[in-house]
UniProtKB/TrEMBL annotation:
This is Major facilitator superfamily domain-containing protein. One of its GO terms (cellular component) is membrane. It is found in: Membrane. The keyword Transmembrane helix applies. It holds the Pfam family MFS_1. GO terms for molecular function: transmembrane transporter activity. Residues 1-18 have a biased composition (Basic and acidic residues). The chain crosses the membrane at residues 51-69, 89-107, 119-142, 148-168, 180-199, 211-233, 279-296, 316-337, 346-365, 371-393, 405-425, 437-458. It is a multi-pass membrane protein. It comes from the Eukaryota.
Length: 484
Protein backbone atom coordinates (compact mmCIF):
# COMPACT_ATOMS: atom_id res chain seq x y z
CA UNK A 1 0.00 0.00 0.00
CA UNK A 2 1.33 3.42 -0.90
CA UNK A 3 1.77 5.99 1.84
CA UNK A 4 -0.86 8.22 0.26
CA UNK A 5 -3.38 5.33 0.26
CA UNK A 6 -2.30 4.58 3.81
CA UNK A 7 -3.42 7.96 5.05
CA UNK A 8 -6.59 7.92 2.97
CA UNK A 9 -7.41 4.59 4.60
CA UNK A 10 -6.67 6.10 8.01
CA UNK A 11 -9.05 8.96 7.31
CA UNK A 12 -11.80 6.55 6.27
CA UNK A 13 -11.46 4.71 9.55
CA UNK A 14 -12.55 7.76 11.45
CA UNK A 15 -16.16 7.68 12.58
CA UNK A 16 -18.07 9.70 9.95
CA UNK A 17 -20.91 10.22 12.37
CA UNK A 18 -18.66 11.96 14.86
CA UNK A 19 -19.61 15.59 14.97
CA UNK A 20 -17.18 18.24 16.18
CA UNK A 21 -18.10 19.97 19.43
CA UNK A 22 -17.47 23.17 17.51
CA UNK A 23 -20.48 22.49 15.34
CA UNK A 24 -20.85 21.79 11.64
CA UNK A 25 -22.87 23.26 8.84
CA UNK A 26 -25.36 20.90 7.14
CA UNK A 27 -25.10 21.48 3.42
CA UNK A 28 -26.95 20.05 0.47
CA UNK A 29 -24.77 18.53 -2.27
CA UNK A 30 -23.90 20.10 -5.63
CA UNK A 31 -24.02 23.90 -5.60
CA UNK A 32 -24.00 24.12 -1.82
CA UNK A 33 -20.92 21.91 -1.71
CA UNK A 34 -19.25 24.03 -4.36
CA UNK A 35 -20.03 27.18 -2.41
CA UNK A 36 -18.57 25.62 0.74
CA UNK A 37 -15.39 24.59 -1.09
CA UNK A 38 -15.03 28.10 -2.51
CA UNK A 39 -15.64 29.60 0.94
CA UNK A 40 -13.01 27.32 2.46
CA UNK A 41 -10.42 28.16 -0.21
CA UNK A 42 -11.10 31.88 0.16
CA UNK A 43 -10.78 31.67 3.95
CA UNK A 44 -7.52 29.72 3.94
CA UNK A 45 -6.08 32.00 1.27
CA UNK A 46 -6.96 35.00 3.43
CA UNK A 47 -5.35 33.32 6.45
CA UNK A 48 -2.22 32.69 4.37
CA UNK A 49 -1.92 36.34 3.34
CA UNK A 50 -2.74 37.62 6.80
CA UNK A 51 -0.29 35.40 8.70
CA UNK A 52 2.64 34.23 6.61
CA UNK A 53 4.07 37.45 5.11
CA UNK A 54 4.06 39.32 8.42
CA UNK A 55 5.58 36.50 10.45
CA UNK A 56 8.13 35.81 7.73
CA UNK A 57 9.10 39.49 7.57
CA UNK A 58 9.60 39.64 11.33
CA UNK A 59 11.63 36.45 11.35
CA UNK A 60 13.64 37.75 8.38
CA UNK A 61 14.64 40.73 10.47
CA UNK A 62 15.53 38.41 13.36
CA UNK A 63 17.64 36.29 11.02
CA UNK A 64 19.42 39.30 9.54
CA UNK A 65 20.12 40.70 13.00
CA UNK A 66 21.49 37.31 14.02
CA UNK A 67 23.74 36.59 11.03
CA UNK A 68 25.04 40.03 10.06
CA UNK A 69 28.11 39.55 12.24
CA UNK A 70 30.00 37.88 9.38
CA UNK A 71 29.21 40.70 6.95
CA UNK A 72 30.18 43.33 9.54
CA UNK A 73 33.44 41.45 10.15
CA UNK A 74 34.19 41.53 6.43
CA UNK A 75 33.25 45.22 6.29
CA UNK A 76 35.94 46.17 8.82
CA UNK A 77 34.67 45.27 12.26
CA UNK A 78 37.22 42.47 12.55
CA UNK A 79 40.07 44.96 12.28
CA UNK A 80 38.54 47.70 14.45
CA UNK A 81 37.58 45.39 17.32
CA UNK A 82 40.57 43.06 16.89
CA UNK A 83 38.30 40.05 16.38
CA UNK A 84 40.99 38.11 14.54
CA UNK A 85 43.02 37.78 17.75
CA UNK A 86 42.68 34.19 18.94
CA UNK A 87 39.07 32.96 18.74
CA UNK A 88 37.36 36.25 19.56
CA UNK A 89 35.08 36.19 16.51
CA UNK A 90 34.05 32.59 17.24
CA UNK A 91 33.36 33.48 20.88
CA UNK A 92 31.21 36.49 19.98
CA UNK A 93 29.33 34.36 17.47
CA UNK A 94 28.94 31.34 19.73
CA UNK A 95 27.78 32.94 22.97
CA UNK A 96 24.63 34.24 21.30
CA UNK A 97 23.32 30.68 21.22
CA UNK A 98 23.70 29.90 24.92
CA UNK A 99 20.79 32.10 26.13
CA UNK A 100 19.04 31.49 22.79
CA UNK A 101 18.79 27.82 23.73
CA UNK A 102 18.06 28.29 27.43
CA UNK A 103 15.10 30.63 26.97
CA UNK A 104 13.29 28.76 24.16
CA UNK A 105 10.93 26.72 26.32
CA UNK A 106 10.27 29.42 28.96
CA UNK A 107 9.53 31.81 26.11
CA UNK A 108 6.87 29.55 24.64
CA UNK A 109 5.29 29.07 28.07
CA UNK A 110 5.17 32.84 28.60
CA UNK A 111 3.59 33.24 25.16
CA UNK A 112 0.31 31.81 26.41
CA UNK A 113 0.52 33.69 29.71
CA UNK A 114 1.07 37.20 28.34
CA UNK A 115 -0.62 36.80 24.97
CA UNK A 116 0.84 36.52 21.49
CA UNK A 117 0.73 40.20 20.61
CA UNK A 118 2.15 41.56 23.88
CA UNK A 119 4.92 39.01 24.26
CA UNK A 120 6.18 38.95 20.68
CA UNK A 121 6.07 42.73 20.31
CA UNK A 122 8.18 43.06 23.44
CA UNK A 123 10.78 40.62 22.14
CA UNK A 124 11.05 42.35 18.74
CA UNK A 125 11.47 45.81 20.24
CA UNK A 126 13.97 44.52 22.81
CA UNK A 127 16.30 42.82 20.35
CA UNK A 128 15.98 45.77 17.95
CA UNK A 129 17.30 48.07 20.67
CA UNK A 130 20.21 45.69 21.34
CA UNK A 131 20.99 45.45 17.62
CA UNK A 132 21.12 49.23 17.30
CA UNK A 133 23.36 49.42 20.35
CA UNK A 134 25.87 47.06 18.73
CA UNK A 135 26.78 49.87 16.37
CA UNK A 136 28.36 51.77 19.26
CA UNK A 137 30.38 49.05 21.02
CA UNK A 138 34.02 50.09 21.63
CA UNK A 139 35.52 46.62 22.17
CA UNK A 140 34.89 43.00 21.30
CA UNK A 141 33.84 42.33 24.91
CA UNK A 142 30.92 44.73 24.68
CA UNK A 143 30.03 43.20 21.31
CA UNK A 144 29.90 39.76 22.91
CA UNK A 145 27.70 41.07 25.73
CA UNK A 146 25.27 42.52 23.18
CA UNK A 147 25.22 39.20 21.36
CA UNK A 148 24.21 37.48 24.61
CA UNK A 149 21.36 39.96 25.09
CA UNK A 150 20.33 39.41 21.47
CA UNK A 151 20.11 35.67 22.14
CA UNK A 152 17.92 36.25 25.20
CA UNK A 153 15.37 38.39 23.39
CA UNK A 154 15.28 36.41 20.12
CA UNK A 155 14.93 33.07 21.91
CA UNK A 156 11.14 33.06 22.14
CA UNK A 157 10.46 34.26 18.62
CA UNK A 158 11.12 31.38 16.22
CA UNK A 159 9.46 28.58 18.24
CA UNK A 160 6.48 30.88 18.76
CA UNK A 161 6.24 31.41 14.99
CA UNK A 162 6.27 27.66 14.34
CA UNK A 163 3.75 27.07 17.11
CA UNK A 164 1.35 29.70 15.77
CA UNK A 165 1.59 28.54 12.14
CA UNK A 166 1.03 24.88 13.06
CA UNK A 167 -2.18 25.73 14.95
CA UNK A 168 -3.82 27.29 11.87
CA UNK A 169 -3.47 24.45 9.34
CA UNK A 170 -4.13 20.76 8.91
CA UNK A 171 -1.15 18.46 9.25
CA UNK A 172 -0.50 17.93 5.55
CA UNK A 173 -0.87 21.57 4.67
CA UNK A 174 1.80 22.78 7.02
CA UNK A 175 5.09 22.13 5.17
CA UNK A 176 4.20 24.43 2.28
CA UNK A 177 3.39 27.16 4.78
CA UNK A 178 6.55 26.63 6.81
CA UNK A 179 8.51 26.56 3.56
CA UNK A 180 6.99 29.88 2.43
CA UNK A 181 7.67 31.37 5.84
CA UNK A 182 11.22 30.05 5.84
CA UNK A 183 11.95 30.98 2.22
CA UNK A 184 10.91 34.58 2.68
CA UNK A 185 13.23 34.74 5.66
CA UNK A 186 16.23 33.09 3.96
CA UNK A 187 15.69 35.26 0.88
CA UNK A 188 16.07 38.25 3.14
CA UNK A 189 19.02 36.50 4.74
CA UNK A 190 20.46 35.99 1.28
CA UNK A 191 20.33 39.69 0.46
CA UNK A 192 21.65 40.55 3.92
CA UNK A 193 25.25 40.75 2.64
CA UNK A 194 24.14 43.12 -0.12
CA UNK A 195 22.31 45.30 2.40
CA UNK A 196 25.34 45.17 4.64
CA UNK A 197 27.55 46.26 1.76
CA UNK A 198 25.19 49.15 0.95
CA UNK A 199 25.08 50.29 4.58
CA UNK A 200 28.86 49.98 4.92
CA UNK A 201 29.24 52.58 2.17
CA UNK A 202 28.24 55.14 4.82
CA UNK A 203 31.70 54.60 6.30
CA UNK A 204 32.86 57.83 7.94
CA UNK A 205 29.47 59.55 7.96
CA UNK A 206 29.03 61.34 11.29
CA UNK A 207 32.31 59.78 12.34
CA UNK A 208 30.81 56.27 12.40
CA UNK A 209 32.50 53.26 10.79
CA UNK A 210 30.78 51.45 7.92
CA UNK A 211 30.35 48.22 9.88
CA UNK A 212 28.66 50.14 12.70
CA UNK A 213 26.12 51.60 10.26
CA UNK A 214 25.07 48.01 9.45
CA UNK A 215 23.97 47.45 13.06
CA UNK A 216 22.49 50.93 13.52
CA UNK A 217 20.29 50.92 10.42
CA UNK A 218 19.15 47.31 10.77
CA UNK A 219 18.43 47.86 14.47
CA UNK A 220 16.34 50.94 13.68
CA UNK A 221 14.36 48.96 11.10
CA UNK A 222 13.70 46.23 13.67
CA UNK A 223 12.48 48.77 16.22
CA UNK A 224 10.07 50.30 13.71
CA UNK A 225 8.69 46.91 12.69
CA UNK A 226 8.32 45.94 16.34
CA UNK A 227 6.05 48.90 16.97
CA UNK A 228 3.99 48.28 13.82
CA UNK A 229 3.69 44.55 14.49
CA UNK A 230 1.79 45.16 17.73
CA UNK A 231 -1.26 46.05 15.62
CA UNK A 232 -1.05 43.10 13.23
CA UNK A 233 0.54 40.02 14.87
CA UNK A 234 -2.00 37.15 14.63
CA UNK A 235 -3.19 35.22 17.65
CA UNK A 236 -4.24 31.58 17.87
CA UNK A 237 -7.29 30.62 15.75
CA UNK A 238 -9.79 30.58 18.60
CA UNK A 239 -8.71 34.10 19.68
CA UNK A 240 -8.22 35.74 16.30
CA UNK A 241 -9.84 39.08 15.49
CA UNK A 242 -9.43 39.24 11.71
CA UNK A 243 -11.81 36.48 10.60
CA UNK A 244 -15.59 36.49 10.64
CA UNK A 245 -17.29 34.10 13.10
CA UNK A 246 -18.16 31.80 10.18
CA UNK A 247 -14.56 31.76 8.97
CA UNK A 248 -13.26 31.12 12.48
CA UNK A 249 -15.69 28.21 12.92
CA UNK A 250 -14.48 26.74 9.62
CA UNK A 251 -10.79 26.99 10.56
CA UNK A 252 -11.42 25.41 13.96
CA UNK A 253 -13.51 22.61 12.48
CA UNK A 254 -10.80 21.77 9.93
CA UNK A 255 -8.23 21.42 12.71
CA UNK A 256 -10.58 19.49 14.95
CA UNK A 257 -11.40 17.01 12.18
CA UNK A 258 -7.72 16.62 11.29
CA UNK A 259 -6.14 16.06 14.69
CA UNK A 260 -8.63 17.02 17.42
CA UNK A 261 -6.72 19.90 19.04
CA UNK A 262 -8.33 23.07 17.70
CA UNK A 263 -8.98 24.40 21.19
CA UNK A 264 -5.89 24.95 23.41
CA UNK A 265 -5.57 22.66 26.41
CA UNK A 266 -4.18 24.02 29.71
CA UNK A 267 -0.44 23.80 30.31
CA UNK A 268 1.06 22.41 33.50
CA UNK A 269 4.52 21.45 34.74
CA UNK A 270 3.33 17.84 34.98
CA UNK A 271 2.58 17.88 31.26
CA UNK A 272 5.92 19.52 30.48
CA UNK A 273 7.77 16.79 32.39
CA UNK A 274 5.74 14.10 30.62
CA UNK A 275 6.43 15.56 27.18
CA UNK A 276 10.14 15.94 27.88
CA UNK A 277 10.29 12.20 28.64
CA UNK A 278 9.18 11.42 25.07
CA UNK A 279 12.36 10.49 23.20
CA UNK A 280 10.87 11.39 19.81
CA UNK A 281 10.71 15.07 20.79
CA UNK A 282 14.44 14.98 21.47
CA UNK A 283 14.98 13.19 18.17
CA UNK A 284 13.23 16.04 16.29
CA UNK A 285 15.46 18.50 18.09
CA UNK A 286 18.69 16.69 17.24
CA UNK A 287 17.62 16.39 13.59
CA UNK A 288 16.89 20.10 13.52
CA UNK A 289 20.28 20.73 15.15
CA UNK A 290 21.93 18.84 12.29
CA UNK A 291 19.91 20.66 9.66
CA UNK A 292 20.93 24.06 11.01
CA UNK A 293 24.65 23.32 10.86
CA UNK A 294 25.03 24.01 7.11
CA UNK A 295 22.64 26.97 7.32
CA UNK A 296 24.57 28.71 10.08
CA UNK A 297 27.90 27.82 8.50
CA UNK A 298 26.82 29.54 5.30
CA UNK A 299 25.32 32.50 7.11
CA UNK A 300 28.33 33.27 9.29
CA UNK A 301 31.22 32.23 7.10
CA UNK A 302 30.21 32.36 3.43
CA UNK A 303 31.59 35.87 2.84
CA UNK A 304 34.73 34.99 4.82
CA UNK A 305 35.21 31.73 2.87
CA UNK A 306 34.71 33.55 -0.45
CA UNK A 307 37.20 36.20 0.55
CA UNK A 308 39.64 33.39 1.36
CA UNK A 309 39.18 32.11 -2.20
CA UNK A 310 40.73 35.33 -3.44
CA UNK A 311 37.76 37.58 -4.07
CA UNK A 312 37.84 41.16 -2.84
CA UNK A 313 35.80 42.31 0.15
CA UNK A 314 33.15 43.81 -2.14
CA UNK A 315 32.94 40.75 -4.39
CA UNK A 316 32.82 38.40 -1.39
CA UNK A 317 29.82 40.26 0.04
CA UNK A 318 27.99 40.46 -3.29
CA UNK A 319 28.69 36.83 -4.26
CA UNK A 320 27.23 35.67 -0.93
CA UNK A 321 23.67 36.29 -2.14
CA UNK A 322 23.25 34.25 -5.40
CA UNK A 323 23.56 30.77 -3.79
CA UNK A 324 20.25 31.41 -2.02
CA UNK A 325 18.36 31.79 -5.33
CA UNK A 326 18.01 28.14 -6.50
CA UNK A 327 17.16 27.11 -2.93
CA UNK A 328 13.87 28.99 -3.21
CA UNK A 329 12.76 26.83 -6.14
CA UNK A 330 13.92 23.48 -4.76
CA UNK A 331 12.48 24.11 -1.30
CA UNK A 332 9.02 24.94 -2.63
CA UNK A 333 9.00 21.98 -5.03
CA UNK A 334 9.84 19.50 -2.29
CA UNK A 335 7.44 21.12 0.19
CA UNK A 336 4.60 20.84 -2.36
CA UNK A 337 5.45 17.21 -3.11
CA UNK A 338 5.76 16.37 0.58
CA UNK A 339 2.33 17.79 1.40
CA UNK A 340 0.76 16.28 -1.72
CA UNK A 341 1.95 12.75 -0.93
CA UNK A 342 1.65 13.17 2.85
CA UNK A 343 5.21 11.96 3.24
CA UNK A 344 8.27 13.60 4.83
CA UNK A 345 11.24 11.31 5.41
CA UNK A 346 12.02 10.30 1.82
CA UNK A 347 12.19 13.89 0.63
CA UNK A 348 14.38 14.83 3.61
CA UNK A 349 16.80 12.02 2.72
CA UNK A 350 17.12 13.19 -0.88
CA UNK A 351 17.69 16.83 0.00
CA UNK A 352 20.21 15.95 2.69
CA UNK A 353 22.16 13.93 0.13
CA UNK A 354 22.32 16.98 -2.14
CA UNK A 355 23.54 19.07 0.79
CA UNK A 356 26.29 16.55 1.59
CA UNK A 357 27.44 16.59 -2.04
CA UNK A 358 27.63 20.39 -1.97
CA UNK A 359 29.63 20.43 1.25
CA UNK A 360 32.13 17.92 -0.09
CA UNK A 361 32.58 19.88 -3.32
CA UNK A 362 33.17 23.14 -1.46
CA UNK A 363 35.60 21.47 0.91
CA UNK A 364 37.72 19.43 -1.49
CA UNK A 365 37.39 20.81 -5.02
CA UNK A 366 40.37 22.78 -6.31
CA UNK A 367 38.97 25.39 -8.75
CA UNK A 368 37.31 28.25 -6.92
CA UNK A 369 34.42 28.28 -9.41
CA UNK A 370 33.63 24.65 -8.61
CA UNK A 371 33.84 25.31 -4.88
CA UNK A 372 31.42 28.22 -5.35
CA UNK A 373 29.04 25.84 -7.19
CA UNK A 374 29.22 23.57 -4.15
CA UNK A 375 27.78 26.40 -2.04
CA UNK A 376 24.77 26.49 -4.40
CA UNK A 377 24.24 22.74 -3.94
CA UNK A 378 24.60 23.00 -0.17
CA UNK A 379 21.91 25.67 0.00
CA UNK A 380 19.62 23.88 -2.47
CA UNK A 381 19.67 20.74 -0.34
CA UNK A 382 19.80 22.20 3.15
CA UNK A 383 17.13 24.88 2.72
CA UNK A 384 14.46 22.24 2.09
CA UNK A 385 15.40 19.92 4.95
CA UNK A 386 14.76 22.60 7.56
CA UNK A 387 11.02 23.09 6.85
CA UNK A 388 10.79 19.35 6.14
CA UNK A 389 11.99 18.44 9.63
CA UNK A 390 9.85 21.13 11.24
CA UNK A 391 6.78 19.79 9.42
CA UNK A 392 7.73 16.19 10.29
CA UNK A 393 7.85 17.14 13.96
CA UNK A 394 4.69 19.25 13.91
CA UNK A 395 2.72 16.51 12.14
CA UNK A 396 3.46 13.91 14.80
CA UNK A 397 2.28 15.63 17.98
CA UNK A 398 -1.23 16.37 19.19
CA UNK A 399 -2.48 19.13 21.58
CA UNK A 400 -1.40 22.74 21.98
CA UNK A 401 0.54 22.02 25.15
CA UNK A 402 2.67 19.28 23.58
CA UNK A 403 3.10 21.30 20.39
CA UNK A 404 4.34 24.23 22.48
CA UNK A 405 6.97 22.07 24.20
CA UNK A 406 7.91 20.31 20.96
CA UNK A 407 8.46 23.50 18.95
CA UNK A 408 10.48 25.10 21.75
CA UNK A 409 12.62 22.00 22.33
CA UNK A 410 13.23 21.53 18.59
CA UNK A 411 14.41 25.09 18.06
CA UNK A 412 16.33 25.02 21.34
CA UNK A 413 18.44 22.08 20.22
CA UNK A 414 18.76 23.73 16.82
CA UNK A 415 20.68 26.47 18.59
CA UNK A 416 23.41 23.91 19.29
CA UNK A 417 23.87 23.74 15.54
CA UNK A 418 24.64 27.44 15.61
CA UNK A 419 27.14 26.96 18.43
CA UNK A 420 28.86 24.14 16.59
CA UNK A 421 28.96 26.05 13.29
CA UNK A 422 30.43 29.09 15.01
CA UNK A 423 33.17 27.07 16.73
CA UNK A 424 34.24 24.46 14.17
CA UNK A 425 35.04 27.02 11.47
CA UNK A 426 38.17 28.34 13.18
CA UNK A 427 40.36 31.19 12.02
CA UNK A 428 43.45 28.96 12.02
CA UNK A 429 41.79 26.64 9.49
CA UNK A 430 41.40 29.36 6.85
CA UNK A 431 41.07 29.46 3.92
CA UNK A 432 39.65 25.92 3.34
CA UNK A 433 38.15 25.23 6.81
CA UNK A 434 38.34 21.46 6.33
CA UNK A 435 37.59 20.55 10.00
CA UNK A 436 34.47 22.69 9.89
CA UNK A 437 33.26 21.08 6.69
CA UNK A 438 34.03 17.64 8.10
CA UNK A 439 31.89 18.22 11.19
CA UNK A 440 29.08 19.65 9.07
CA UNK A 441 29.05 16.59 6.80
CA UNK A 442 29.04 14.36 9.89
CA UNK A 443 25.99 16.19 11.22
CA UNK A 444 24.08 15.38 8.03
CA UNK A 445 24.93 11.69 8.33
CA UNK A 446 23.75 11.72 11.97
CA UNK A 447 20.49 13.36 10.90
CA UNK A 448 19.84 10.58 8.38
CA UNK A 449 20.46 7.91 11.02
CA UNK A 450 18.05 9.48 13.51
CA UNK A 451 15.46 10.01 10.79
CA UNK A 452 15.71 6.32 9.97
CA UNK A 453 15.10 5.39 13.62
CA UNK A 454 12.02 7.59 14.04
CA UNK A 455 10.55 6.53 10.71
CA UNK A 456 10.89 2.82 11.51
CA UNK A 457 9.43 3.44 14.99
CA UNK A 458 6.40 5.32 13.63
CA UNK A 459 5.89 2.76 10.86
CA UNK A 460 5.80 -0.03 13.48
CA UNK A 461 3.25 1.83 15.65
CA UNK A 462 1.05 2.62 12.64
CA UNK A 463 1.13 -1.01 11.53
CA UNK A 464 0.27 -2.31 15.00
CA UNK A 465 -2.73 0.00 15.21
CA UNK A 466 -3.95 -0.95 11.74
CA UNK A 467 -3.62 -4.66 12.52
CA UNK A 468 -5.48 -4.33 15.82
CA UNK A 469 -2.43 -5.22 17.91
CA UNK A 470 -2.62 -1.86 19.66
CA UNK A 471 -5.78 -0.72 21.44
CA UNK A 472 -4.55 2.60 22.80
CA UNK A 473 -4.83 5.40 20.20
CA UNK A 474 -1.62 7.05 19.05
CA UNK A 475 -0.92 10.37 20.74
CA UNK A 476 -4.17 9.81 22.66
CA UNK A 477 -6.20 10.79 19.58
CA UNK A 478 -8.61 8.30 17.96
CA UNK A 479 -7.96 7.98 14.23
CA UNK A 480 -4.49 9.51 14.41
CA UNK A 481 -1.62 7.97 12.43
CA UNK A 482 1.97 9.19 12.38
CA UNK A 483 3.28 10.87 9.25
CA UNK A 484 6.31 9.02 7.91
Amino acid sequence: MSERDYYMDADMKKDPSKESSLGSVKLEPSEADQDQVAFEKKTIRFVDWRILPLLALLYSIALIDRINLGAAHTAGMGVDLKLDVGNRFNIATCLYFVPYMIFQLPGNLLLQRFGVRNWLTFTVVAWGAVQLGMGFVPTWGYLTFCRILLGIFEAAFFPAMLFIISTWYRRHEVQKRIAIFYLISITMGGISPILAYAFSLLDGKRGIAGWAWIFIIEGAITLALGVVSWFFIPDFPDKNRFLTPEQTALVLKRIEDDRGDAIPDPMSFKKVRMYLSDWTLWAYGVMFLCSTMPAYSQAYFISIILKGMGWSRTDALLLSAPPYGPAIITTMIFAWLSDKYKHRSGFIVFQTSVCIAGLLITAFAKPHGVRYFGIFLTNAGNSGTIPGILAYAANNVVSHSKRSVQSALTVCLGGIGGIMASTVFRAQDAPRYLPGFGVTVGSQVLMLLILGCTTLHFRKLNRELREGKRTKPLEGQVGFFYTL
